[in-house]
Specification:
The complex is a heterotrimer of chains A (about 400), B (about 425) and C (about 400). Chain A has about 400 residues and is an alpha/beta fold. Chain A has 17 helices and eleven strands. A six-stranded parallel beta sheet of chain A has the order 3-2-1-4-5-6, with helices on both faces. In chain A, helix 1 crosses helix 7. In chain A, about 60% of the residues are buried. Chain B has 16 helices and twelve strands. Chain B folds into two domains: about 270 residues, Crotonobetainyl-coa:carnitine coa-transferase, domain 1 (Rossmann fold), CATH 3.40.50; about 90 residues, formyl-coa transferase, domain 3 (2-Layer Sandwich). In chain C, the strands form four sheets. A six-stranded parallel beta sheet of chain C has the order 3-2-1-4-7-8, with helices on both faces. Chain C has two domains: about 260 residues, Crotonobetainyl-coa:carnitine coa-transferase, domain 1 (Rossmann fold, 3-Layer(aba) Sandwich); about 90 residues, formyl-coa transferase, domain 3, CATH 3.30.1540. Helices cover about 35% and strands about 15% of the residues of chain C. Classes of the chains: A alpha/beta (about 400), B alpha/beta (about 425), C alpha/beta (about 400). At the A-B interface, helix 2, helix 5, helix 6, helix 7 and strand 6 of A face helix 1, helix 2, helix 6, helix 7 and strand 6 of B.
Chain lengths: ~400, ~425, ~400
């Protein structure tokens, strides 16, 4: 089977995880993705962990995971000679993804004009305009702007971020969606579009924030940690060998749960019918012993048989052995700069699980494709070496 | 809709909660004709029939006033159909005939039972793209399991990494990151399949496991285990390699600010602002990254004694003006205080029958030259039944009969 | 056998051709040479030729030759965190040699000062020295050569001045820095004092021989710009033979007489046309014809053998393809062939001098390091912890 995006070429000019996460999705489905990197490499290459904790510009976990199947070229685009190369590269491509400072993006985008050029997506923390456009932000400070850190915390304790990097990945992921949208659009109507993804807006405008609820009700999110004791059981509960997460506070799940743990009488108990809000402790006298007695995987399968939304809390060591992941071959073995290791496979598959054509190729070494690409762009041997000596390419 | 990128595409969305609905809205934002097929007579998960914490007070049916529902349902038309009924199936088959994408979010097996599994759908329309978005996918030992985004967060290892370093899991807020990112995954999947259709001239089925859509986003969790046989520790807001990198108190009670200095330049800027210029002297331990890692406690204290003199917006402004990473930890009302969002005209004022004019968050992205707009506020249950059925060629009398026999509806029983 | 410079720790900073040439002098004989390279990529790695003409940061010819037996670490010396590393690496070094712009060099010198006290030997290489109105000028191999009067000398009157082989000038400056650096190491051993040495490229070239300056200063006359064959005090320069050229330095006696005998014309040794200083320049063409007729029947190696037999100073002019097979080079193993990772066999010049016999193992050469190959190893050696090393890498201070 031919991969769906195999006739597409995407240029990635990215200073953060977001740009690489964005183009990763294109590369997963066969697009040719060219990473334009500075001599020091994209910052994603510097993100730990590293094998045996030894830093390696070609061996960082984020790079190995998000740059699969891409090509790497080193171009110093702060120079006119570099811009000239970029111009040729743009014309070879179908889409350009920028993830760098606003002024730099403007400069790099300026040479794109006319419908013969590709559409572009520019990722920035606060957008390309406005008083904050030049602010420096990182994964955590962007999340702080979205109300999610505030929501993620307990009263009078510090707000919390999500996993390191996850905000930038979400922003990149959002950019991938609009990118494929405008790529489709350009195919249909031949109109070149410039899309802009402001990190704060992309996350704040999405779900899992407290903002819209506040607009509707004027109530601030309850900052109570993992267990909601007024509308229960929802949240994280300890069990025999770890923790499970439950979402069974509403019907029909609450009834299913009570039946599943062998206490249908709860459903008739006036304490839980009329005054559920104030009887969490009483409820736990029923649920607590059940959880204490069983391990997380038993609870997971047993309650799910009754249609209760429950899941075990897993850590890194559990993932590869997870039966579902194994059955679906969610993780794939890959041979890369650090030898053989596992990566999460493509996020979805067309028509068939793990179609053979969706093979992951390893991430490129820094600058591995510069020479080949310059050849392809029509530069002579002498010109190629001249550009290298002048530190325009590497 | 002003944006034309997806103009001409017809999308059928039969999903609940957030990931599927938000995806369909994003397609609507870009000009697709999105029809939400809502469950009837059972109400959707995000349309409670009695008030709960996210319900806007006021007049009108409760299920039209829930924030969780409004958050993922702009820019679509709405039909409420009982597709368990033969008459309902007939309508849906007609909708499928010229649709480009059909997204369904039932638990595994359910849509087959309703007669709209891929085997049936591709017979009706061989060119269609169908996407199923069950939490763990349609195949494998977990295919019958049910979950919300929070359960996926727990089973991908993300939950084990979040939270206060000294805390317990029970202190960690369940989150719905899976929904926040799942919508883009489904969006991307749909367009990928459509691009495939251009080549192969036939439709595509996608069994999208939302778990798989989330797990690739945390490469560090897996790599710590597979590369180094370590289970990553809960870090809170710290970073083992960057000092300072944290959340600090401000002058306001229980309000906070993020401050980070990732390199020596940002550190220079920070020290100038907090009055510790001696900490940048080459001979001082804290002038370099390695020295700062050893001095986390003292450095954090010095930053907090600065941030505690200001509110978060002011302190962030001062720090940012000196090239330091800083942002107020924003509460929902604080969102309206951001000059940036106002200057960029991000907020959208939306007028809805039962919420009235409200100011809500805007789009995830902006596109030139054909900008996005919020043309259809969250539709009422069955709001476009007549309009769409007429387009499909049903006449007025037949439509009335459908209402009468409960095939379609425009309100839920409380 | 231990090598003579075992135990010396030399730090080289800047990645230029000069500083690489300087460091090579030490690494060749067993010193521990740490090559600190800038994140913007060392100049020495950018120089062609490359195998198959495909550029590669680890495969440039000059790098492969000059960086043998060194270890490579990439440090951004402009950041405070980078300076801290350099300080730790350098404080027990015997010598630090740097070739970076003057203001940057001044900053790095300061980290090795405790008050007025210098903590280690430092040699700076700059185009015009650390002081004076030209100190911040940007120069290269060609412009430095221009300043040294040698370009002027290396030309024919009325035509453009010429440089020598590319990089000949900057390599010489590096060798000069190595010599003075070695002296500083020696004297520190003896008297315990550290020295700050300022090598200016222009001064190093101009103050040495083969420039026209000294002669002019003595007699006020500009040297004739005759390049090639001298028509005054001949034969001097290159003369065509059967298969190439021979280079002569045989204009004066006794070498001139020996030449006349060797080509079977002892009469010319006393012929006034060629011995009288007034007459000799007028008869250049006549002599040239005689010599070239003799050379025309001989290959350059035949001529070389016959003439050297008689003590005539002359040499065949060799090209790259002939160097490896030169009998003397073959006999002394002047070139060595070695396997370089990722390239295969490469040939580089062997020991610049021998100790204790022809095949002494005083000289040893390990392959030139890949960029940043030893960053982690060197940081570990200097006491950096695992997470600290990652932190420095993440911030781009190291690579």
């Amino acid at each position: 089977m031919v991969q769906p995006l195999n006739d597409m070429c995407v240029i990635e000019i990215s200073d953060s995880i977001a740009g690489s996460a964005c183009t990763k999705t294109f590369s997963d489905y066969g697009a040719r993705v060219i990473k334009v990197e500075p001599f020091s490499g994209n910052k994603i290459r510097r993100m730990p962990p590293f094998k045996e904790d030894i830093p390696d510009i070609n061996g960082g976990a984020y790079h190995l995971s998000f740059d699969t199947g891409k090509e790497s070229v080193i171009i110093d685009y702060s120079s006119n000679s570099g811009l000239e190369i970029l111009d040729r590269l743009y014309q070879l491509s179908d889409l350009v993804i920028f993830d760098t400072e606003v002024e730099k993006t403007k400069k790099l985008r300026n040479i794109i004009n006319g419908n013969n050029y590709p559409s572009t997506v520019s990722i920035t923390p606060h957008g390309m305009s406005g008083p904050f456009k030049d602010r420096l932000e990182n994964d955590m400070s962007i999340l702080a702007w979205t109300t999610r850190m505030y929501r993620n915390s307990m009263e009078n304790m510090s707000p919390l971020r999500n996993a390191p990097g996850s905000t930038l990945v979400q922003i990149g992921h959002t950019a991938a969606a609009v990118a494929v949208g405008i790529y489709w659009g350009q195919k249909q109507d031949k109109i070149r579009r410039d899309a802009e993804v402001a990190g704060v807006e992309a996350v704040l405008g999405n779900v899992d924030t407290g903002f819209v609820s506040w607009i509707f009700t004027g109530n601030l999110p309850e900052r109570i940690g993992g267990q909601l004791k007024t509308r229960y059981p929802t949240g994280i509960y300890p069990c025999k060998d770890g923790h499970v997460i439950l979402s069974a506070n509403e019907e029909p799940w609450f009834s299913r749960l009570c039946n599943a743990i062998g206490h249908p009488e709860i459903l008739q108990d006036s304490r839980f019918i009329e005054d559920r809000e104030n009887n969490w402790q009483a409820f736990m006298e029923y649920l607590g012993p059940y959880l204490e007695k069983h391990d997380k995987n038993y609870i997971f399968t047993h309650l799910q048989e009754h249609g209760v939304m429950v899941a075990p809390v897993l850590n890194a060591s559990d993932l590869l052995d997870d039966p579902q992941a194994k059955a679906r071959k969610s993780f794939v073995k890959i041979d890369s700069a650090i030898g053989e290791h596992y990566l999460a496979g493509a996020p979805f598959h067309l028509n068939k699980i793990n179609d053979e054509s969706f093979k992951l190729k390893s991430a490129p070494k820094l600058g591995a494709h510069t020479n080949m690409l310059l050849n392809e762009l029509g530069y002579t041997k002498e010109e190629i070496i001249a550009l290298f000596r002048a530190k325009i390419t590497g | 809709m002003s944006n034309k990128s997806l103009e001409g595409l017809k999308i059928l969305e039969m999903t609940e909660a957030w990931a599927g609905p938000v995806c369909a809205s994003l397609m609507g934002d870009m000009g697709a004709d999105v029809i939400k097929i809502e469950s009837f007579p059972r109400h959707s998960l995000t349309r409670p029939t009695s008030p709960r914490y996210a319900t806007m007070p006021g007049e009108g049916p409760v299920y039209e006033r829930d924030a969780l529902h409004h958050q993922g349902n702009r820019n679509k038309r709405n039909m409420a159909i009982d597709i368990r009924k033969e008459s309902g199936k007939e309508i849906f088959k007609k909708l499928l005939l010229d649709a480009d994408v059909f997204i369904e979010g039932y638990a595994a097996g359910k849509i087959e039972k309703l007669g709209f599994g891929w085997q049936d759908v591709q017979k009706i329309n061989p060119n269609i793209t169908m996407i199923s978005i069950a939490g763990w996918g349609l195949e494998g030992p977990y295919k019958n399991m049910v979950t919300l985004g929070a359960g996926l967060d727990a089973t991908t290892g993300h939950l084990s990494l979040r939270g206060y370093p000294q805390g317990d899991f029970v202190d960690t807020h369940p989150n719905f990151h899976s929904d926040a990112t799942g919508s883009s995954t489904i969006f991307f999947a749909a367009l990928t399949a459509l691009l495939q259709r251009k080549k192969e001239k036939k439709g595509t089925f996608i069994d999208l496991s939302q778990w798989e859509g989330l797990v690739w986003q945390f490469p560090a969790i897996l790599a710590e285990w597979t590369m180094n046989k370590r289970i990553p520790e809960r870090l809170g807001n710290n970073d083992p390699h960057i000092v300072p990198h944290g959340v600090y108190r401000t002058i306001e009670e229980d309000k906070w600010i993020v401050v980070a200095a990732e390199d020596d330049n940002q550190w220079q800027g920070l020290c100038e602002v907090i009055g510790k210029i001696e900490w940048t002297d080459l001979m001082h331990q804290y002038s370099n990254i390695v020295g700062r890692i050893k001095g986390r406690t003292e450095i954090d204290a010095a930053i907090e004694s600065f941030t505690k003199q200001y509110d978060g917006f002011t302190a962030a402004e001062i720090l940012q003006n000196n090239h330091v990473i800083a942002s107020p930890v924003v509460t929902p009302p604080d969102v309206l205080l951001s000059n940036q969002l106002h200057e960029r005209d991000w907020h959208q004022t939306v007028n809805h029958k039962w919420t009235g004019p409200i100011m809500v968050g805007g789009h995830l992205w902006n596109v030139e030259p054909d900008t996005l707009s919020w043309d259809i506020p969250t539709a009422l249950v069955g709001q476009h039944n007549e309009e769409i059925l007429t387009e499909l060629g049903f006449d007025h009398d037949y439509i009335s009969a459908l209402y009468a026999n409960g095939t379609i509806g425009n309100h839920y029983e409380n | 056998m231990t090598q003579p410079l075992n135990g010396l720790k030399i730090i080289e900073i800047g990645g230029t051709v000069s500083v690489s040439a300087a460091g090579k002098k030490f690494s060749d004989f067993g010193a521990n040479v740490i090559k600190i390279e800038p994140p913007s990529v060392s100049d020495v790695r950018k120089i062609a030729p490359f195998p198959d003409d495909i550029f590669h940061i680890d495969k440039g010819a000059v790098h492969l030759a000059f960086d043998t037996s060194k270890r490579s670490i990439v440090i951004d010396h402009l950041t405070n965190s980078g300076k801290e590393i350099i300080q730790r690496l350098g404080k027990d070094a015997d010598l630090i040699i740097m070739d970076i712009p003057v203001t940057e060099a001044q900053d790095l010198i300061n980290i090795f000062k405790d008050g007025d006290n210098l903590l280690t030997n430092v040699v700076t290489i700059t185009p015009h020295g650390m002081t004076g109105p030209y100190k911040d000028r940007v120069e290269n191999d060609l412009t430095l050569f221009g300043w040294s009067t040698r370009s002027h000398r290396h030309s024919i009157a009325g035509r453009e001045p010429l440089r020598y082989g590319p990089y000949a000038g900057v390599v010489q400056i590096g060798s000069t820095a190595a010599a003075v650096g070695m002296a500083a190491v020696w004297s520190k051993r003896n008297e315990g004092m550290n020295r700050l040495v300022d090598v200016s490229g222009v001064e190093a070239l101009m103050g040495n021989v083969d420039s026209g300056f000294f002669l002019w200063a003595v007699n006020g006359a500009l040297q004739p710009r005759s390049a090639g064959q001298s028509s005054g005090l001949y034969p001097s320069g290159a003369y065509k033979c059967k298969d190439g050229y021979m280079l002569f330095s045989a204009g004066r006696d006794p070498v001139y007489s020996r030449l006349c005998n060797a080509i079977g014309r002892p009469d010319l040794a006393t012929d006034k046309r060629f011995t009288d200083p007034e007459e000799k320049p007028k008869n250049f063409e006549i002599f040239k014809k005689i010599l070239e007729d003799w050379l025309a029947t001989r290959t350059k190696y035949e001529a070389f053998d016959e003439l050297q037999e008689q003590g005539v100073m002359c040499c065949p002019v060799l090209d790259a393809s002939e160097l490896e097979n030169d009998p003397q080079s073959v006999y002394r193993k002047s070139y060595i062939t070695r396997n370089q990772d990722g390239i295969g066999d490469i040939t580089i010049a062997g020991p610049p001098f021998r100790m204790n016999g022809l095949y002494s193992d005083a000289w040893e050469s390990k392959p030139a390091p890949n960029l940043s190959e030893h960053t982690t190893e060197i940081l570990q050696e200097h006491g950096y912890g695992t997470q600290e090393i990652i932190a420095l890498f993440r911030a781009g201070v190291t690579t």
